[in-house]
User: Fold these one by one.
Assistant:
Number 1:
Amino acid sequence: MHDVIIIGAGPAGLSTAFWCDELGLDTLVLEQAEEVGGQLHRLYNPINNYLGLKARNGAELLERFAADLDSAEFDLWTQTNITSVDLKAKRVSLASGEKLQSIAIVIATGVRPRELGVPGEKEFSGKGMIESGTRDRELFAGQDVCVVGGGDAAVENALLLAEVCPTVTLVHRGKKLRARPEFTQQLQSTHCITVFTESVLTRIMGDDHVEAVEIQRKQGLKPFQLAVRGVLIRIGVEPNTGLFREQLETDERGYVVVNSQQETSVPMVFAAGDISNPVAPTISSATGAGATAAKVIASRLSTK
Ligand SMILES: Cc1cc2nc3c(=O)[nH]c(=O)nc-3n(C[C@H](O)[C@H](O)[C@H](O)COP(=O)(O)OP(=O)(O)OC[C@H]3O[C@@H](n4cnc5c(N)ncnc54)[C@H](O)[C@@H]3O)c2cc1C
């Protein structure tokens, strides 16, 4: 029996665990990945917006987090496959057959990139699918590429790739790009970028590596093929709520609804970080929400 089980070890889960430890709670963190850190592993840009410290990228920030967590005494299990969670009973079942019990649960499972769901997307992973403009652009220098999406992340990546690629084709299904004016203005003056709005990428093709994409411009028109060597998809994120979505209140997109104390609709079940923050997800808000959840849990347990 633990005081607290935290599901997910990104910035929110780690901060919750750090605070729970400070407050003397018996804490177990369950992480499905090999390593802790969550989205910090996909963050290749400099982090200049975390008050008090700067880092060259997510990996460096994670090193700093890890140094602070070195002396903490909470239990952390990585590569943990949770098969079911009974939120009301606070019972977590693992693929190993183990059943874990706690007084409180904190959901900190974050978000994952939304997939397009088109043929070729999974098959060409590592063979022409670009994960990040910052990280991969030298790999794709001198090659024609395609970017899918119309928000900040898509346009920013298109601009980064345009610095080294002869052509960048940006495909967006909406009528207008959603990216901030600073990016769209820059886009207009970047001549090697072609923008197709009201268009969808329907297929990624090639042999051993991406060689072309199929694009459908407007409903009803015949798709056409475009030769490219790289494809980057940035069409938003989805909350990781699969395990418990039916058991608590979520919004229409599946994000967990919480109050100002990070409480969910189930007593003694809390949520922190991106999983409960569709509006302004950041590392600061994730670590802050984790601190709030831990403090509220500690005060509830002290009055039991
Ligand atoms: C490219 C990029 C750039 C960014 N730049 C910035 C920036 O400059 N500044 C900033 O403040 N923020 C930035 N962010 C956002 C920031 O990374 C997130 O807001 C932050 O990581 C959220 O932390 P989290 O712990 O809520 O979720 P996550 O980081 O998503 O961590 C969730 C963890 O839960 C685990 N998990 C999920 N499901 C399960 C399960 N069923 N069982 C066990 N574990 C599970 C995951 O494996 C993961 O480790 C950026 C994000 C990206 C992708």
Number 2:
Amino acid sequence: MSERDEVVVALDVGGTGMKCALVRPDGTTVHSERHATTAQRGPEAVVGTILDVAEGLAGKARADGRTPVACGIAVPGVVDEARGVAVWSANVGFRDVPLRELAGTRLGLPAALGHDVRVGGLAEARLGAGRDAGHVLFVAIGTGIAAAHVVDGSAATGAHGAAGEIGHILVRPGGPRCGCGRTGCLEAVSSASAIGRRYAELSGAPTTAAEVADRAAAGEPLAVEVWQEAVEALADGLATGQALYDVATVVLGGGLAQAGPRLFDPLRRALRERLTFHREPRLVAAGLGDEAGCLGAALLALDTLAKESR
Ligand SMILES: [Zn+2]
């Protein structure tokens, strides 16, 4: 424990809820709380809630005898980390919101703004399943598919804040339509929503990806077919990822990773078949669960502090 018991105010803002915590520099959480985002109130109201919650957490830290030293916020969508601006987000409604400056001013603390999946990858690479790997690809598979390439503990943001969109690698030209407007993106075949949708299309019954996994494991032919299609497309996407990034470890997170060996065993085989001279990455399940975003936001804020004090 540091002498002054320093903590970072960390928030992970999602479309439905906000995970919030006070995190020590070593990555341990000393307090956590959850709040509803209620995005339908509009971006201004959401920003108001973010700032109120962050201020409340800083106050809670002081009341408990701790010293808040920085604030880290993670949001979905396109995030310009260098400028600290939430550029665009479909599910929270942000358009060019200068969240870092707003939070810094309200709290009187240095602040950092990060992309939810990128900071989640940062946390998995430094504290979770990718620990000590150096080069890590974190892939979150849920309603969509997004990724973060982490090198020596820092996640690449890209020139426009949009690095890691491996969900939109073209894997099935002419395939199912993707939310981005094109057809055949990885996300349109292998995301949890796509798997449920595909099975429902063929069977006429609404079904979740978890149910498809269960039915495939029980040997139901239609489920086996849909699950296999998704696994193979995912292996195509990961093989492309490995050609681009040559990572030591691929960490899979999000809802689909909870399928465990039902996903990892066939995926490992399919990925191995696709690799020629590329080295096979270790394929592991995420270790931090839904706290990754919050921990990553804290790490990003601490990195910012360290840079400023240099
Ligand atoms: Zn797409």
